[in-house]
Amino acid sequence: MNDEKETENGVRSNLPSQTINNLLSTGNWVYEKSAEHLKQFALSVEQYNVLLILEKLGETTANMSTIQNSMISKMSNTTRLVEKLRLKGLLTREQSQENRRKVEINITEKGILLLNEIEKSQILKEKEIVKNLTKRDLLTLNKLLNKMKPQI
Questions:
Q1: Are β-strands 12-14 and 103-107 bridged in parallel, bridged antiparallel, or unpaired?
Q2: Residue 64 in contact with residue 101, Cβ under 8 Å?
């Protein structure tokens, strides 16, 4: 079976290459749509991700490692993101009294209120992004994307 195909620009490409290029292109498109939406709240996609992680933890105090390991993009500069959010009053960052090397991070009430403000429009934005997919398509897509990732 020959899985090569000629692309729009005349270059021959194999199916795995086409798939990866499509994933990267689509991922970038989704990122841009998300970034455009969050701009009105003066947040980046990565900052929003940090706030969601902290909200999910509830009363549990986080540290830089906890946040970094939960980030969508593992390449994010967590220290810089946390500091920017701290300056906006959306989270607190304090040194642990027991271990001076440990930093304790919590979402503030202001951060929770901002997430609540974003929620409805975020749900609408997400529905708009996937509007051309049926529920079955979404379930299949999630299954396939999860199948691609290595099991950790």
A1: unpaired
A2: no
